[in-house]
Amino acid sequence: MFEKILVPIDGSDRALLAAKYARILAEKFDSSVTLIHIIQNPAYIMPDTIIPSLLIKDLEASGKRILDKALEIFDDFDGRVNTLVEYGHPGIRIVDVTEERDYSLIVMGRRGLSDVKGLLLGSISNHVLHHASCPTLIIKSNDEG
Length: 145
What we know:
By secondary structure, the protein is of the alpha/beta class. The chain has a single domain, classed as 3-Layer(aba) Sandwich (Rossmann fold), CATH 3.40.50.620. The chain is 46% helix and 20% strand. The protein has helices at 13-29, 42-45, 53-71, 90-100, 115-121, 124-131; strands at residues 4-8, 32-39, 81-87, 105-109, 136-139. The protein has a five-stranded parallel sheet, with helices on both faces. Strand 1, helix 1 and strand 2 form a beta-alpha-beta unit. It is globular and about 45 Å long. The model has no long low-confidence stretch (mean pLDDT 87). Belongs to the universal stress protein A family. Pfam families: Usp (PF00582). This is TRAP-T-associated universal stress protein TeaD. Residues 1-140 form the UspA domain.
């Protein structure tokens, strides 16, 4: 049913909870899992500036650490799990990657690291929910009421 599962990972506890749910589903449906981290291009935040390559390398290293932490959830996973780093607006890239690579399910947390940022830019999970071409499972943590 769900051959390929995409799990956006931003380093938040909610994203890690989504990865745990994705693992359960992957075990049940014999699915592959891809953990994706989106590096939001700093040029979106600081238009008309040149972004130093050192900053980009630092963002990439941080993204790798975030994905490595999520990979720990899959330590003894019998299926296939891989990681992917993409660049751009998180909501847009998640939707685009889902279509480009033909994912059959997205599993993600309801809110990520910055609730305030989500209010200012629009919720990433809300964008994905309304624009993705495949089913999207939004994981709500217990502290969200």
